[in-house]
Amino acid sequence: MSGKALTLGAAEFAALARERLRPYPPEPGDLIARPRGDHEGQEHPVPVPDEMRAIPAAVLIGVVPRPEGPTVLLTQRAAALRKHSAQVAFPGGRVDAVDGSPVVTALRETEEEIGLSREKITTLGFLDAYLTGTGYRIVPVVALVEPPFSLTLNPSEVDAAFETPLSFLLDPANHRREGREWKGVFRTYYAMPFEDRYIWGATAGIIRNLYERLAD
Question: How far apart are CA 206 and CA 94, in angstroms?
Fold first, then answer.
């Protein structure tokens, strides 16, 4: 993919994120905050999901300052799950009625899935909502995760948690456009294979959106 690679230290990333990201979560139906999603970039037109009817969800894009360079915290979903099993994902999930905001959802789900204390997380901003072909409206919450921290995985939800270099994810040379047939229609998506992990679909699409917002 075309574009320049972004090589940022943790402090540089935090400053740029605060400058470029949305300071408040996008609301459904917001005419300014246009939702992104799986419907974009398709070779053949596909229906745009109805944002107002989509299931609300939130995920945490947790950037970890490391001496060798910042990383992004990701999970490998449990192989036994009925949907999206064994896929690479951000910590997160459905919004509960009692949550009150996508931040609360992202922090709660992160704690439930991998045992990361919310006291270690500092929110930087929000990306545009991401609509999936499976009917979800995901609000990505971008944050710094302060080391050191310990994780306790919930085996019913995740099989592994791992970190991927931010510099790899923010290099468009690593953003492949791949495709497969789904429900009788050929659909394309972003994929960012890293070592033995295959990052693709909504997770890769959200990473691409992060890159575009920071590189803009």
Answer: 16
